[in-house]
């Protein structure tokens, strides 16, 4: 019983002694500079107990891994020794050198700087500050003041105050604004809080405050995140709309100045093609760079250089090109290039769909090269300025995407826009090269990819108009750049002659009575101009007109003499297959 009473008396005495060691007033001022560092100045008015122990240490409001600089300590206006101790999860300033202090009132002044104390977020700058630390002596009154580099309009909801122990903070109800620190309702650079009730041993004050971004220099990554946050408020749609509007204005002005000007209506039909223009060259200029192999095959056939025949294996028909005369007269340079590549030394036959397709494509490339050497590509514009405008718009849209998203997403979307540009120009805008079903399929595929990428990109802020804008600019730019007709002055003169000749091919009716009087001569006339009709897309009308005006047997006989060993009704189908170059359907073929 005596032992228990002794322990109780000892604990009461110890508690009485500890209660005398307390902090009457804790005043903390934190000043934020332009670099985001926190300059803290803490004034602690403490009462030392009879045992001579005042404030023994101060846990700074940072973890042990953070570097604290410019630490200084004074007691009662004189420098006071201290030591910095790092531990797991804390950084401590130990006061004194172990010598006791005089009982009574003492004033401690602690100063230190914490670099990078401010956390920069996309929509705000934030400071999470443990004002008193923890495991300090009992606190009778705590005041906290925060000062920023610039004035701002403070709001009460910009502060969240907590009282409690670390990892167990409770939101207090007894924190009020300090009117002396904030001259309401004007803007101010400082704002303060103070407690109304004492804080018991082991409890402290923590304040989380934030303010508008821009007062503190943020890291580059944070600046991009702020762009992302700001543009998510609707600026992306405005920027994308402006880029597309300017691109559309450029297209419209180009259209009005050099694009698709209607050719003058021919005063009369021209019964002959432009002088010195082969059928292949006429098709190349009128289509602005498309080299049709059906035109060259038919032209070489009617000039006696090769023969177009048709054979059949089982139920599958295929076309065969037989070499007749490699040195045939009246061949143009591009036609001779096709003949040399199609029938190299020792080769006299080419089976469409069975023989090496690269030889067929090589002949087509040789024809294009020969036409360029003749200057045929100088008769129309290649629309480099249209393409440059489209690519510039894509680059600007990618820049917008980089501001409101990640760089990888922007690069991938720029690549996607470039793909749309290529597809729009080379697939959609050249209907004579691809069927409508294939072009619709490609368009549907592009749309599906756009929907998928749009779903993925919309997980980030501000890209709701970015990806569709890239799709529209890329696809529309490709279509416009390769579809709009723009010829040079000389090219327009040639095109007027070609259009006059095309009108003759379309309107050769019964009023050309001298032509129909001699069926054999009419059939010869049909064969001479058949390649031109194929080049200008009027072969069906040309064939139909002659089948109605002359005897079929005469027409067929002349066709065989000229190298077209097929039925007249099957002629157009054979030429179309030559243009498509179908692949074999089985290994045996």
Task: Give a description of the structure.
- The chain is α+β, with helices and mostly antiparallel strands.
- It is 43% helix and 22% strand.
- It is built from 17 helices and 20 strands.
- The strands form 4 sheets. An 8-stranded mixed beta sheet has the order 5-4-8-2-1-11-15-14.
- The chain is rod-shaped.
- The termini are far apart.
- Residues 2-19, 178-185, 428-433 and 582-589 have low confidence and may be disordered.
Biggest sheet, open or closed, and with what strands and sense? 8 strands, mixed
Q: How many E strands?
A: 20
The mean pLDDT is: 75
CA distance, first residue to last residue = 114 Å
**Order of strands across the main sheet:** 5-4-8-2-1-11-15-14
Q: In percent terms, what proportion of residues is strand? A: 15-25%
Report a brief summary of the structure.
This protein is α+β, with helices and mostly antiparallel strands.
Task: Please specify the SSE layout and strand pairing.
Elements: H1 2-20, E1 22-32, E2 38-48, E3 57-59, E4 69-75, E5 78-79, E6 82-87, E7 90-95, E8 104-114, E9 119-121, E10 124-130, E11 142-152, E12 159-165, E13 168-170, E14 175-177, E15 188-195, E16 204-211, H2 220-231, H3 235-258, H4 279-286, H5 293-302, E17 306-313, E18 316-323, H6 333-342, E19 349-351, H7 357-373, H8 384-404, H9 407-428, H10 436-457, H11 466-483, H12 489-506, H13 513-517, H14 519-535, H15 539-549, H16 552-561, E20 564-565, H17 571-580
Parallel strand pairs: 1-11, 17-20
Antiparallel strand pairs: 1-2, 2-8, 3-7, 4-5, 4-8, 6-7, 9-10, 10-16, 11-15, 12-13, 12-16, 14-15, 17-18, 18-19
Helix pairs in contact: 3-8, 3-11, 4-14, 5-14, 5-17, 6-7, 8-9, 8-11, 9-10, 9-11, 14-15, 14-16
């Amino acid at each position: 019983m005596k032992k228990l009473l002794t322990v109780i008396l000892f604990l009461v005495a110890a508690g009485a002694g500890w209660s005398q060691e307390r902090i009457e007033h804790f005043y903390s001022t934190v000043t934020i500079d332009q670099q985001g560092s926190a300059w803290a100045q803490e004034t602690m008015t403490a009462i030392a107990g009879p045992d001579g122990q005042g404030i023994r240490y101060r846990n700074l409001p940072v973890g042990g891994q953070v570097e604290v600089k410019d630490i200084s300590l004074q007691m009662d206006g004189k420098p006071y020794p201290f030591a910095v101790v790092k531990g797991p999860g804390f950084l401590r300033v130990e006061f004194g050198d172990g010598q006791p202090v005089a009982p009574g009132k003492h004033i401690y002044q602690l100063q230190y700087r914490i670099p990078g104390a401010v956390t920069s977020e996309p929509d705000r700058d934030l400071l999470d500050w443990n004002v008193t630390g923890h495991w300090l002596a009992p606190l009778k009154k705590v005041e906290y003041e925060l000062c920023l580099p610039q004035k701002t309009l403070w709001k009460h909801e910009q502060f969240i105050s907590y009282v409690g122990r670390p990892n167990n903070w409770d939101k207090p109800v007894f924190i009020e604004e300090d009117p002396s620190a904030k001259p309401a309702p004007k803007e101010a650079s400082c704002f303060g809080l103070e407690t109304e009730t004492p804080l018991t041993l082991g409890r402290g004050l923590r304040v989380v405050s934030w303010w508008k971004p821009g007062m503190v220099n943020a890291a580059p990554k944070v600046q991009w995140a702020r762009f992302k946050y700001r543009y998510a408020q609707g600026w992306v749609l405005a920027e994308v709309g402006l880029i597309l509007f300017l691109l559309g204005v450029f297209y419209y002005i180009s259209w009005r100045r050099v694009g698709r000007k209607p050719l003058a209506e021919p005063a009369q039909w021209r019964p002959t093609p432009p002088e010195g223009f082969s059928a292949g060259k006429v098709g190349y200029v009128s289509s602005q760079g498309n080299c049709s192999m059906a035109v060259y095959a038919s032209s070489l056939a009617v000039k006696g250089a090769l023969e177009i025949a048709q054979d059949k294996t089982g139920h599958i028909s295929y076309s065969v090109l037989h070499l007749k005369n490699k040195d045939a007269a009246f061949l143009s340079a591009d036609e001779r290039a096709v003949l040399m590549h199609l029938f190299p030394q020792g080769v006299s036959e080419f089976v469409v769909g069975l023989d090496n397709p690269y030889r067929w494509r090589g002949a087509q490339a040789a024809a294009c090269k020969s036409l360029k050497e003749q200057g045929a590509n100088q008769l129309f514009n290649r629309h480099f300025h249209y393409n440059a405008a489209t690519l510039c718009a894509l680059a600007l849209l990618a820049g917008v995407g980089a501001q409101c998203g990640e760089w990888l997403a922007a690069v991938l979307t720029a690549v996607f826009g470039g793909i749309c540009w290529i597809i729009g120009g080379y697939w959609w805008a050249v209907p004579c090269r691809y069927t409508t079903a294939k072009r619709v399929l490609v368009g549907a595929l592009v749309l599906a990819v756009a929907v998928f990428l749009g779903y993925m990109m919309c997980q980030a802020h501000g890209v709701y108009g970015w990806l569709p804008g890239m799709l529209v600019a890329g696809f529309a730019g490709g279509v416009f750049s390769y579809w709009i007709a723009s010829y040079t002055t000389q090219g327009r003169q040639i095109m007027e002659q070609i259009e006059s000749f095309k009108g003759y091919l379309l309107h050769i009716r019964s009023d050309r009575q001298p032509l129909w009087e001699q069926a054999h001569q009419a059939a010869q006339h049909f064969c001479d101009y058949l390649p031109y009709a194929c080049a200008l897309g009027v072969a069906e009308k040309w064939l139909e007109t002659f089948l109605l005006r002359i005897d079929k047997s005469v027409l067929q006989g002349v066709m065989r003499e000229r190298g077209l060993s097929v039925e007249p009704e099957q002629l157009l189908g054979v030429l179309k297959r030559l243009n498509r170059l179908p692949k074999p359907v089985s290994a045996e073929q």
